[in-house]
Amino acid sequence: MQPIAQLTTFNPTRRSFLGMLGIAGMAVAASPVITACSNDGGGSSSGRYRIVQPSKDPLVVWAVSYLAEDEGYYKDEGLEVERVLLLGGPAALTGLLSGAGDALSATPGETISAFAKGQDLKIVMGHSNNMPSSLVISATAADRAGVTGSSPLDERRTALARIGNLRLGITAPGSQTDAYSRMALRQAGIDAGAPKIVPLQTASNCLAALGNGDIDGYVGVPPAGETAMAASGAVLLLTAQAGEIAKADELQGMTLVVRGVDLEKRRDTYAAATRAEVKAMRALNDDFAAAGKLLRRTRFGSLDAVVWDYAWSRLRPSFQSPIVTEHALSAWVRNGLIDGGKVGEGDVVYNDLIDMRLTNDAMREVGFVTTR
C-alpha cells in the first residue's frame, strides 16, 4: 500500500482506476446491523444501547463503534447494541431528542446549534478527531474549470469559481458535508448563496446524482469519493485532511452525544458504552491494519480491495484520541458554520456542552494514552 502522503494526492484516470478495480459502478457497502426506532423516552433497560446514526449508508468514520460491536467489546460490557439509521443530521438529532435512541454519533454542527437554543445535550466522547473528507467533481465539471487532480493547489482551490451554474450536493443543511462545501466555496471566492446547494440525504444519492449529471460535485468521507472516481471518472479536487480546504482540518469530527437527563439516569450504561468504544479506539491505534481487515469483512465486504485500502489508509490520523477539545469544537462556530453564522462564540458555554469524565475514566481503565 502506498504511504498516506502519496495516497492523498492519488488521482488515477477513469480508465486506469477502473482497470485496477475491475468494476464499473459503486460497490454498495454492507452493514449487518439492526435498525430500530422506538420512542420510549430513553427508558430502555440498562443493557440496551441504541446508537442513532445520520445515514443509512455505513461510513468508515464510524469505525470505532463498528469495531466495538464486531470485537465484542459492547457484549463484554453487558450491552445489546441497536442502530437507529436516519437520513441526515437534523433527523438524527431529532431522533435523539425524542428518545428514539440513547446516543448520537455525528458531526457536531446540529448538536451545537441545538445546545445554543437551550437543548440539554452533552458530548461525552469523540469517535473521530476530524473528518478526512474530499471534494470530488465530475469529469465534465473539471473540464469546464480546466483542472485535473494533479493541477497545482492554487488552481484547484479556485476551480469552483470557473464552473458555471455550479451545483454541489450535500447530505443535509448543517452537516459536515455542508460545512466543508461552504468552506471550499469561500476559499474560491464564491458567495455561499450563489451556487445551488442540493440536499440529497446520503452519500449514495450524491454519487448517483454526480453520475447522472444532476450535480457537479460533492464532499464525501471515504469511501464516497473513491467510489465516485471509480464509477464515473470523478476528479479528486480537494482533500480536507491535507489542509487543501482552508481551516477544515481544525473541525472536530464525529462526536458521541447524549441527552443530559439520560446521562444522569443511566450513567452506568453510558460508562459501559464509553469503555467499549475507548477499547475499540485503542485497538485501532494498536493494530490499524488488523482492525481494517475485520471491518472490511464485517461491514464493507462488497468494496473492492483497492478502494478499501485507499480509503482505510486515509483514515488513520482520524482515530488518535477520544477526547473532544474546546478548540476543535469551537472551530465550527469560529468559521461561521452554525445556523449560517448566527451562532457566535458567546452563545455556547463549552464547559457545559463537553463532558469528558466518562472518557477520561475509560482511558485510565483500559490503559489508553494519547498526546492529543
Report a brief summary of the structure.
This protein is 42% helix and 13% strand. It contains 18 helices and 10 strands.
What does this structure look like?
There is one protein chain. The protein folds into 2 domains: 48-130 and 253-366, Periplasmic binding protein-like II (D-Maltodextrin-Binding Protein, domain 2, 3-Layer(aba) Sandwich), CATH 3.40.190; 131-250, D-Maltodextrin-Binding Protein, domain 2 (3-Layer(aba) Sandwich). The protein has 372 residues and is α/β, with parallel strands linked by helices. The protein is built from 18 helices and 10 strands. The chain has a 5-stranded mixed beta sheet. A 5-stranded mixed beta sheet has the order 7-6-8-5-9, with helices on both faces. The model is unreliable at 1-45 (pLDDT under 50).
Mean pLDDT equals 86
Identify the CATH class of the largest domain. Alpha Beta
Question: What percent of the residues sit in helical stretches (DSSP H or I)?
Answer: 40-55%
Taken from the alpha-carbon principal axes, the silhouette is globular
End-to-end gap = 27 Å
What is the element string, with H for helices and E for strands? HHEHHEHEHEEHHEHEHEHEEHHHHHHH
Number of domains: 2
Our estimate of the beta-strand percent is 5-15%
Radius of gyration based on Cα positions: 20 Å
Strand order of the largest sheet: 2-1-3-10-4
Give the arrangement of secondary structure elements.
Elements: H1 4-7, H2 14-21, E1 48-53, H3 63-70, H4 73-76, E2 80-85, H5 89-98, E3 103-106, H6 109-116, E4 121-126, E5 134-137, H7 139-145, H8 153-157, E6 167-170, H9 176-187, E7 196-199, H10 203-212, E8 217-220, H11 224-232, E9 235-239, E10 255-259, H12 260-265, H13 267-286, H14 288-298, H15 305-315, H16 326-334, H17 350-353, H18 357-366
Parallel strand pairs: 1-2, 1-3, 6-7, 6-8
Antiparallel strand pairs: 3-10, 4-10, 5-8, 5-9
